[in-house]
Amino acid sequence: MRPSSDLESGSHAPHKGRILAWAAWDWGSAAFNAVMTTFVFTVYLTSNAFGGEDQASAVLGGALAVAGAAVALLAPVTGQRSDAGGRRKLWLGVNTVAVALLTALCFFVFPRPEFLLLGVTLIALGNVFFEFAGVNYNAMLAQISTPLNIGKVSGFGWGMGYLGGIVALLLVLQLFVQPSFAWFGASTEDGLNIRLVAVFSALWFVVFALPVLFAVPELPKTRQGAGLGFLASYGLLVRRIKAIYRTSPHTIYFLLASAVFRDGLAAVFTFGGINAAGTFGFELKDVIFFAIFGNVVAAVGAIAGGFLDDRVGPKAVIMGSLLGLLLAGSVIVALGNGSYSFFGMEWAGTTTFWIFGLFLCLFVGPAQSSSRAFLARLAPQGESGELFGLYATTGRAVSFLAPALFTLCIAVAAPLVEPGEAQRWGILGIMVVLLAGLLLLLRVKAPDQAEIAVVPAA
Known about the structure:
mainly alpha, disordered N terminus
């Protein structure tokens, strides 16, 4: 692979300060990913206070599916336009602030059924702007790494995100869920403690997002796409995709495959806490304890996967991770919350989730970080920003799949099983998406075998 320009990556020594500042954004984003959308606030939204676990879970899944469709329609040109205008860092900041504001507004979601729609709308919109921010954040990977260490840097970023999640969750546990001292934020009246978690998460994200906005330089404007109208940007996008397909078809194949399996990866965490509470009977404090252990395991997996990535290649890491996810998820679906006897020992449903849920966490991190590093190795000279934007945006073009299949499986199972049991079968929908992504990945050549995408002017 030929190195990109100095500003993009590869021809200079890595700048440790920029790597740390870049990874700090991932650390801060855990407040939205881990606290809000996975282990605390969505668990609160899908509790009985909002009309029942199954019904609230289906509404949340539907809202996230709509958000995914919005990302598919709007996001493909956001990265292109910010890169062309030399505003990658600006739009990272704007979208980060939008996520923080939507998160803070969750303070007004009171534990009553009539507030369910407000809650899921704020979370869904937050996901949309988070994906827009991710377009620019992922593109920065090529600016702060080299071709020889890009796997480790990507894994370090994911690892920092998981570790940030641990610290944020510990603070949430000690301050709001099981407070170690008496203060007004510990009150559970009208869900005050959980609503204050939203305010905490918003502040956490903003504080740790600031370093990257100062440490990583802005890109200069490019000729391609500069000054185009919004609709015209779609025309340029189509021409660029065609050009990439002519010169490097396996880049497109990977974009398609990763679009599918990354949606499944996101859903594992999005719906993990919900299933822990609804299907396996975890109390909120138990969900948070699991989240803390899960983030430790995920961080170890992401960092170890980054080292493996630079040695055996990203495709091997991704495929191994997806197989591990399918195995662990299938066991959770098959065993559920029942009690079983193995070699004279009783195995409760909570044990099933603790063991195999942690295996899910272990394999998610390497798949995510190696997916990002995979495309970085395919990035053409001087075009890594656009390709990362295409990856992060069109990759989310199918982001409605896992939430939609999660919801569909719950709806199909609901009349066939006991009340409260349908939620578990939503996991099956996520497994279908992961399997589809794995099958699509089989035909993709590894980066050292694929052609480098040299895209002619569109």
